[in-house]
Amino acid sequence: MKQVIPHDTIKRLALYLRSLRYLAKKKVEVISSQRLAERIYASPSQMRKDLAYFGEFGIRGVGYNVKKLIAEIESILKLKKKRKVALIGIGKLGTALLAYSGFEKFGFRISALFDNNSGKIGKKIFGLKIEDIARTKEVLKRERIKIGIITVPAADAQEVTDRLITSGIKAILNFTPRYLNIPEGIMINTVDMAIELESLTYYLP
Amino acid sequence: MKQVIPHDTIKRLALYLRSLRYLAKKKVEVISSQRLAERIYASPSQMRKDLAYFGEFGIRGVGYNVKKLIAEIESILKLKKKRKVALIGIGKLGTALLAYSGFEKFGFRISALFDNNSGKIGKKIFGLKIEDIARTKEVLKRERIKIGIITVPAADAQEVTDRLITSGIKAILNFTPRYLNIPEGIMINTVDMAIELESLTYYLP
After folding, report:
1. Per-residue CA distances from A199 to A40, A180, A195, B37 (Å)
2. In degrees rounded to 5, what are phi and psi of residue A109?
3. Burial classification of residue A46, based on how many CB atoms lie within 10 Å of its CB (0-12 exposed, 13-18 middle, 19 or more buried)
4. Of A39-48, A54-63, B97-106, B142-151, which one has max mean pLDDT?
5. Chain A: residue nearest B73 by CA?
6. What are phi and psi of A148, to 5 degrees?
7. Is pLDDT at B65 greater than 90 in this prediction?
């Protein structure tokens, strides 16, 4: 079953959830698929299709109960428990991500830092010690960390990825502008900020 | 014509381009659709469909000429000229983006900074003066800037967006975790790092 659900659907579930949480804060109790879909720039039919993979959550002609749908999606995405995350590459971008409060707010805590620069290894930043990249296996297994965020230089990205996977990492958030070879069973999301800009210029005069 | 091309296709064009540039550096001259598609985790049929919106670029049974396809995609995405970009919200994330060299490498130069914090306005950072957010209209028109990157707090995001649009901004890269209401003719891409993590946990045990 899992295999047939497109990753884009999973991503949109996270986006619906984001909007639903915002609506819940604003005391909205029920929302139509039209309005909820609109909030993430999707079509209502796309949204119904996305949710249909997991069951029947709305009431025809009424819409979705906001709180109930939040609980359903949190359960589908396994977001009920906090997750520890490793950050690999403590340069400018890595440090910025450490300072970024957004992850913690959504249940992710950066709990291990790695770098290969001997000038950085052993230093503390935001209360966390920077570990030697050579120690991923030991540290990640001890801390039971399954998610890694990669902010190393592009040229090191594949080597670091291979190392993380042999150290037990199952999901990778890749900030490097590089195609990464990964085996079956490992999931990767890439955030490429330049791509986002490049795909905007198409629409400019 | 423009309207019927899905935004996902435009984004994938930027991704093909990224891979093609890497291949060109590695002196690869020809690549099959199979291999090129694989590099961005797409299917070859998806890739052929994406390119077919713009013409016939490959040679059946041979593949694509790397240099030629780079030139074609750069032309489609209007990437031949450098673009000036404004950055709104000079907090932790904004400062990290300023330090990030990736944009410049791809032809985007952050050329104007804005904030609403009187303690920041007038200060210089990376050689650029932080302007008062109230002055967007004047500065953006003078500098002919059409692209804005928003790194303000979520609660301010819509107000800032509205202001940018009345100041002539046509494309927005949004780093806030907030749905933004935009009129027809304005393009928006959202980078939401927490969403990327949330959509990975689905695959974890």
Report:
1. 18, 21, 6, 18
2. -120, 120
3. middle
4. B142-151
5. A202
6. -125, 140
7. yes
Q: Are A200 and B147 in contact (CB < 8 Å)?
A: yes
Closest partner CB to A198 (pick from B95, B106, B170): B106
Task: Give the amino acid at A110.
Answer: I
Nearest-CA neighbor of A100 among B87, B192, B173? B192
CA A34 to chain centre: 26
- The confidence score (pLDDT) of residue A163 equals 97
Q: What is the pLDDT of residue A1?
A: 43
Which letter, b or e, does each residue of B119-129 get, where b requires 16 or more Cβ atoms within 10 Å of its Cβ? ebbeeebeeee
Tell me what ipTM this predicted complex has. 0.83
Name which residue leads in pLDDT, B42 or A110. Answer: A110
Query: How does DSSP classify residue B188?
Result: E
Q: Report the pLDDT value the prediction gives residue A193, as an integer from 0 to 100.
A: 84
Sheet strands (E) in A117-162: 124-125, 128-132, 147-150
DSSP string, B72-83: HHHHHTT-SS-E
Q: Min CA distance, B64 vs chain A (Å)?
A: 18
Asked if B203's CB is within 8 angstroms of A196's CB, the reply is no
Domains of chain A are 2-76 (1.10.10.10), 83-195 (3.40.50.720)
Chain B residue with minimum CA distance to A177: B18
Nearest-angstrom CA–CA distance, A111 and A139 = 10
Distance (Å) from the C-alpha of residue A187 to the closest C-alpha of chain B?
7
